[in-house]
Design a protein that fits this description.
heterodimer; A: mainly beta; B: mainly beta; 4-stranded antiparallel β-sheet
Amino acid sequence: DVQMTQSPSSLSASIGDRVTITCRASQRIGTFLNWYQQKPGKAPKLLIFGASSLQGGVSSRFSGSGSGTDFTLTISNLQPEDSGTYYCQQSYRTLFTFGGGTKVEVK
Amino acid sequence: QVQLQESGPGLVKPSQTLSLSCTVSGDSISSASYYWTWIRQPAGKGLEWIGRIYMSGSTKYNPSLNSRVTISLDTSKNQFSLKLTSVTAADTAVYYCARDDYDGYYIDYWGQGTLVTVSS
């Protein structure tokens, strides 16, 4: 299995801040990396696919980068509605695997 | 607008079979463009991919569940289903059905999720 490791596991930031979440794969996965946002009691929502492509309808404040084993999700100008848990997911191997999640609190 | 809706018992006894269905609207499960996927999430924990099925009936399962899981299609109802046998308390989770883009390798639509509790 491809193991996905996210850091940090949680963070707290202020409105307007720029936030970065990192995800590391246990093997090279090219750009087969997706990011999801999940709010309490809701299903995950696709934000970024292919490491850097923004899903339609998603705010341009979200951006992704990276390839190989190291990836980042950046949230610019953090807003209250950005609170939630963020997961990375690799789709390089059919056994899709997810990172452990990063809980974002907006102060 | 694509919508997915899970249905099935919310309580299953240990050693029995968990059975869920996912009704798809706004798209056809016979589409060649997507896989149809099940994912679960224990309370307060992360996401675990269970498996997926393609319109041809071809399936792929998580090896950790492989011997206990079956995913099938019902094209007449535009549904796909999950069966998980010999359940234990460790199978208690919110179960999501989802659509997985065949070419894009990402999951773009999810059901709202359904909580299944395994308890006697």
